[in-house]
């Protein structure tokens, strides 16, 4: 067997929670299904019946493992759920969230979208104090810290612990009596509030609300803590205010185009990025072709601005798993064709503009360019709807090391030669931010310019909490 994954940044994780609905676990399963694109390795749900927490976690896709029989055992009118792609820790059942423990404050469950760069140091400190960890996840350090916190209850302990925490966290906590949602003061990762009749729900993306016919109420604010219990919804701002640093890559690639993220339509952002890309990097061509699926909206924008015909001339196979049987040496490598295949009669003899959201290592882009040439294109021009990705992410995205990022090692001209395109154009940083509509200095763009909002751990300077 061998792995096949397109050369992209890997999605982080997705979280969903609901309070006050008799079908809480079923609605959480549906919410996670809508968020499946944010993580395909594992998923889990913890529910509360008002007295006790009930947990199920498994490796695999939401629809495969969160079955009707499983959901029947997850009693109660509140629940939180998580779908995972590992950005910190190993890939085993021990790492699957939500995590659940019983401590001095009672039962508590947690699920996390983000990353805590300080976690290795904090973990070592807790282990010296006698803590025993069951996973390698950075999220578990939060649970241990809450368990040791001198506080009246879990709701009081949560902000005390998180005030000492630096990094990216959109967190959901569940106790027998309450659901708590918290977003870090810089707001790296998205978190949204919705309402389904008399029930409150929280999700990484608004597309999860659409599936269960819930109303999108608003974005949970940076540094906000929401406590939802039988007395209603209560909002607090327990953290010191810090500069806003929302992840711009959510709009470039991670989020579903039908979501509203950071208060803005993802589809509209990508369309505008494509329009701006056409302004910055025009080319004489016959056809604009998206690299599916994430390049579609930007390609439509590019075609609309340039006046060049748009066609779906590359088809994606959505049924390719993470592994496949490796063919014998007598059969040439399948490569990218397992997932993408050109429509030859559309491409033959045409000057093609390929639009994609990003280039990471460059290996997949090179194969796609070659595939389109073999389908008969007379010219292949690559256009990318974000700037050159030259630095890794430390805030909840699984990215290669800097040494493996092609834009960190080569100039644009060199990348163009490597992928064997006739021309290559990246959207400028200024053009991307303007297209999304982010205010000046309100977004984290470290993966493009290396300017991290915090100092980072793991071979880098430790975090500066000032």
Detailed description of the structure:
- The protein has 466 residues and is of the alpha+beta class.
- The protein folds into 2 domains: 2-242, Glutamine Phosphoribosylpyrophosphate, subunit 1, domain 1; 261-449, Rossmann fold.
- The chain has 16 helices and 26 strands.
- It has a 7-stranded antiparallel β-sheet with strand order 4-3-5-2-11-10-12.
- Strand 13 and strand 14 form a beta hairpin.
- The termini are far apart.
- The model is unreliable at 1-5, 329-333 and 459-466 (pLDDT under 50).
Q: Which architecture of the largest domain would the CATH scheme give at its second level?
A: 4-Layer Sandwich
Distance between the termini: 49 Å
Report mean pLDDT, rounded to a whole number: 89
Main sheet attributes: strand count, strand direction, barrel closure: 7 strands, antiparallel
Helix fraction by DSSP (H/I, runs of at least 4): 25-40%
> How many individual domains?
2
Biggest sheet, strands in spatial order?
Answer: 4-3-5-2-11-10-12
Derived from helix and strand composition plus strand pairing, the structural class reads: alpha+beta
CATH superfamily of the largest domain: Aminohydrolase, N-terminal nucleophile (Ntn) domain
Please report the total strand number as a whole number.
26
Q: List unreliable stretches of 5+ residues.
A: 1-5, 329-333, 459-466
State which percent range the strand residues make up: 25-35%
So what's the CATH class of the largest domain?
Alpha Beta
């Amino acid at each position: 067997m061998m792995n096949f994954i397109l050369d992209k940044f890997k999605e982080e994780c997705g979280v969903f929670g609901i309070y006050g609905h008799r079908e809480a676990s079923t609605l959480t399963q549906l919410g996670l299904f809508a968020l499946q694109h944010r993580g395909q390795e594992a998923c889990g749900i913890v529910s509360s019946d008002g007295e006790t927490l009930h947990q199920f976690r498994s490796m695999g896709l939401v629809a495969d493992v969160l079955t009707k029989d499983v959901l029947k055992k997850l009693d109660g009118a509140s629940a939180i759920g998580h779908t995972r792609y590992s950005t910190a820790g190993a890939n085993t059942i021990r790492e699957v969230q939500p995590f659940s423990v019983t401590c001095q404050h009672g039962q508590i469950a947690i699920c996390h979208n983000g990353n805590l760069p300080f976690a290795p140091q904090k973990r070592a400190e807790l282990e010296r104090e006698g803590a025993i960890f069951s996973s390698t996840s950075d999220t578990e350090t939060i649970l241990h810290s809450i368990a040791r916190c001198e506080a009246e209850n879990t709701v009081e302990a949560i902000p005390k612990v998180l005030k000492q925490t630096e990094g990216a966290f959109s967190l959901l906590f569940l106790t027998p009596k309450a659901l708590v949602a918290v977003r870090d003061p810089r707001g790296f990762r998205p978190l949204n509030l919705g309402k389904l009749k008399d029930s409150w729900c929280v999700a990484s993306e608004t597309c999860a609300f659409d599936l269960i016919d819930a109303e999108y109420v608003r974005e949970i604010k940076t540094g906000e803590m929401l406590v939802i219990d039988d007395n209603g919804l209560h909002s607090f701002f327990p953290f010191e205010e810090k500069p806003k640093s929302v992840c711009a890559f959510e709009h470039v690639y991670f989020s579903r185009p039908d979501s509203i993220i950071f208060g803005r339509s993802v589809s509209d952002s990508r369309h505008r990025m494509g329009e701006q890309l056409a302004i910055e990097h025009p080319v004489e061509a016959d056809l604009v072709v998206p690299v599916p699926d994430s390049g579609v909206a930007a390609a439509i924008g590019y075609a609309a601005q340039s006046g060049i015909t748009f066609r779906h001339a590359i088809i994606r196979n959505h049924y390719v798993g993470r592994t496949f049987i490796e063919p014998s040496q007598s059969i040439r490598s399948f490569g990218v064709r397992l997932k993408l295949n050109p429509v030859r009669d559309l491409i033959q003899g045409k000057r093609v503009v390929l639009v994609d959201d990003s280039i990471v290592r460059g290996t997949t882009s090179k194969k796609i360019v070659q595939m389109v040439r073999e389908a008969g294109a007379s010219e292949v021009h690559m256009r990318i709807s974000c700037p050159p990705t030259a630095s890794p992410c430390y805030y909840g995205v699984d990215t290669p090391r800097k040494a493996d990022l092609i834009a960190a090692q080569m100039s644009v001209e060199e990348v163009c030669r490597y992928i064997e395109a006739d021309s290559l154009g990246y959207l400028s940083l200024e053009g991307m931010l303007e297209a999304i509509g982010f205010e000046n200095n309100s977004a984290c763009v470290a993966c493009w310019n290396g300017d991290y909002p915090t100092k980072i751990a793991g071979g880098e300077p430790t975090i500066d909490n000032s």
